[in-house]
């Protein structure tokens, strides 16, 4: 796992995994359970797979049907608390699109605009504190592959907007 490599190689002293896939980040939580310098954070739909949850450092279970405004408040509150608390050298961000209202397995109700606002918010929180962030696409269960590809592309469009507005281009 990239977290182990980065920590063991000395490239970072602390990494924070911010997992916004609709399903709990149980694999990450289990793999990094005994790695104190890897902080696992999972925002996930409470009543969703897996039935038996692993124990992340920070599990943030969300109710079914949560929409944009409430979800974005949770993201902002979590990052405003966790980033100053842990002061990670790097944030690994799982930008799951299975939180989308049209996702077959998600049970949350974010719109395209809500997903974009979440992605931008995560990047702005990190970059505003001079913390590098790596965003990866994740989740997404739809038979409409074009719609799913567009949702995954939201992360890249959001990153471009953040980059352009930062004056770093």
The CATH topology name reads Arginase, Chain A
Proportion of residues in extended strands: 15-25%
The level of helicity is 40-55%
Known CATH architecture: 3-Layer(aba) Sandwich
Q: In terms of per-residue confidence, which ranges show pLDDT below 50 for 5 or more consecutive residues?
A: none
How large, in whole angstroms, is the Cα Rg?
Answer: 15 Å
The CATH superfamily label reads Histone deacetylase domain
CATH class: Alpha Beta
By helix and strand content, what is the structural category? alpha/beta
Separate helix tally? 5
Q: What topology, given as strand order, has the largest sheet?
A: 3-2-1-4-5
Number of domains: 1
From N to C, what is the helix and strand string? HEHEEHEHEH
Biggest sheet: strands, sense, closure?
5 strands, parallel
Distance between the termini: 31 Å
Give a count of the beta strands, DSSP E runs of length 2 or more.
5
Mean pLDDT, all residues: 95
The coarse overall form would be: globular
What labels describe this entry?
5 helices; globular; Arginase, Chain A; single chain; 41% helix; alpha/beta; 169 residues
Question: Can you give a write-up of this model?
Answer:
By secondary structure, this protein is α/β, with parallel strands linked by helices. It has one domain (14-164): Histone deacetylase domain (Arginase, Chain A, 3-Layer(aba) Sandwich), CATH 3.40.800.20. Helix content is 41%, strand content 18%. It is built from 5 helices and 5 strands. It has helices at 2-8, 26-31, 68-86, 112-127, 145-165; strands at 15-19, 38-45, 58-62, 90-96, 133-138. The protein has a 5-stranded parallel β-sheet with strand order 3-2-1-4-5, with helices on both faces. The mean pLDDT is 95.
